[in-house]
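>> received
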Amino acid sequence: MREKVTIIEPEVLMTDSNNQAVSKKRVCAYCRVSTELEEQQKSFDAQVSDFQQRIQENPNWEFVGIFADRGISGTQAKKRVQFQQMILACKTGKVDLILTKSISRFARNVVDCVETVRNLKEVGVEVHFEKENLYTFDSKAEFLLTILASIAQEESRNISENSTWGIRKRMKDGVAVVNCSRFLGYDKDENDNLIINPEEAKIVQRIFSEYLEGKGCGKIGKELEQDGIKTVTGCSRWAETTIKGILMNEKYYGKLLLQKTVTVHFSTHKRVDNNNLASIYCAENNHEPIVSKEIWDRVQAERERRFKLTGGKNSNKAKYLQRYPFSGKLICGHCGETLKRRHWNTGTASERIVWQCITYIQRKASFCPTKAVGEATIEAAFVEVYNQVIQDKSSFFDEFFKIISRTLEKSDKKSDFSRLSKKINALEKELKELIKMRTQKQIDDACFNVEADERKQKLHELIEKRDKLADSQISLVEQNLKMERIKAVIHDNSNPLTEFDPHLFQTIIEKVIIHSPIEFTFCFQGGVQIKVDAEKYHDGRKMKKSKK
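>> returned
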């Protein structure tokens, strides 16, 4: 006869990080609220107080601490600092049991929730979800946890969609959905309308003005720092990206453009540019502008000009282009490249600053014959040219009007634009009709290809003509704006120059074509060009005279 089998249950031993046995279960709690609303903060404080009291009153438990995240979404565990600290404490053997109010407080992402619970199980840590009365060491826990976490995730998705719908409804109604605490120049009134903050608006106007004077984003930022001016968030340092963002923001001229970026997925909160992913809401003249539309357009044109000068790259070359008044504006008359500033004979009596063609520097004279031109020569030539302009303003502006008239003659005015648009629309309708006929098998493929190719070719030619016409009209407007700008500058600086003015040069000169060390063409903003023989200012001649 067999003897009775005695079952010896395993003794559950709890150990610390040094593998030493401990007598009490080490317990912590995790609390979280997703917003800073007063009601949720009260709930948060109640959770913390209740957990702390219960753990400390239980004689079999040792209180480890409360890990709490305030005003943080539960969809991404990696962004919850306290949550991550709690997991680290568990992995280092400091916790045996985690108490939390519910699955939705612990995580709203199914993958994060299940994976975290599994990892905790591996290190001997149990989680108790009070609302669901679920202990993760239970054999059925993972199955139930997956279902309940899925429900919590779906709830999070619904909340996100409802919030998004509300925001988009406000956008559609023309409400400025803008965080003014991070928006320099504007505040909001009681009706959520944008109103100008006068002190901040002066900073915005200064940034736009200095950019048009030729300064780069980095230089503008450094000068703001030197003047002790802080960013909208109270930071002492002005990043180049901050200045660039201000210069590109259409809200500063009164236009409201909403939903320029969209959230890809509610669980990741990642935002991307809205490239045809959702509606964009646009309201012209929505609020009082800080800068005029004319100034904003000029800044965008200047940004494009500088971008092209760098070869379409945002590199160190872009920063170099703004270092000196002549940077990026001196163009070789032979090869079209820009000129680079160089020091000759440094530390000697014959030391001077010159500008040399980049092609000449890199490939020598066999590729470009342009010789170096002295900086002092260009400065003196500009002083002479400017003084000529203010002495004979009428001739100067007459030339402006001639350029505009020539542009008008080439553009054939708005009637041609309308006529071309009608022809394009007619051809597009014919193409659609051909496609419909082929779909309904009223025309064979060979015939369709011949007819469609003919229309596509003609359509392409007409669109090119219309685009050129549109460009000429835009060019005409830009030239008018530049002429008005230069008129204002000349009016404000009507006295003859006695020395070179770098800001004046940057404002009115688009480029200087260098034909030789003594022959330049000054190209003003708007198209007027004045050719100069600067032989009398040539550094080399001056040096020879001084030797005599």
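>> The first helix runs from residue 38 to 57.
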